[in-house]
Amino acid sequence: MVYGHSDPGRPHIVEPVTLKILVAGGFGAGKTTLVGAVSEIRPLRTEELLTEAGRPVDDIAGVESKTTTTVAMDFGRITLREDLVLYLFGTPGQDRFWFLWDELATGALGAVVLADTRRLEDCFAAIDYFERRDISFTVAVNCFEGADRYPEDSVRDALDLDPGTPVVLCDARERESAKHVLISVVEHAMLASAPQG
Predict the structure, then answer these.
(1) Can you tell me the distance from the alpha carbon of 19 to that of 166, in angstroms, rounded to the nearest whole number?
(2) I need a surface site. Which of 22, 150, 178, 196 has the fewest CB within 10 A?
(3) pTM to 2 decimal places
(4) Do the beta carbons of residue 126 and residue 161 sit within 8 Å?
């Protein structure tokens, strides 16, 4: 269980516990959108316009309307309870920016892997990354308009996930939906880190 720290010099004021959560997934899966939808502060974004020079390496098939890409990270914050604050770090989706992931992952409690059923294979690398580093994660299927909908168990099978890895459906544009995803990550990470006995 996570509890805030009470300051004896200031009665009834709780200093919250802060936790770091990564938001990962393939190019165009909705990472920046999810961080922006749920953050209670104006999110920090490091987006740049897609250019002709990037066309050979940025596969926009299925996300043709995408005009920008994250080149470092997105950052946001959400207070889940008076004593629990999450710092959100959205990772870049393209391979050429993955050198940033190790720095971003340092100290993370867990992660969200955003999946787009139109390009499901794009989230394999993120899943492999977190599995290799034993970082708890939840797969959040971003339900894009016009994309086929699949039951959570079908997504789990297609991604070859461990039975205990949560799979949730979400709309990354909606605050409550994004908040539900983050709660799932925290609950799963805390369960995974709890002493077995």
Answers:
(1) 19
(2) 196
(3) 0.77
(4) no
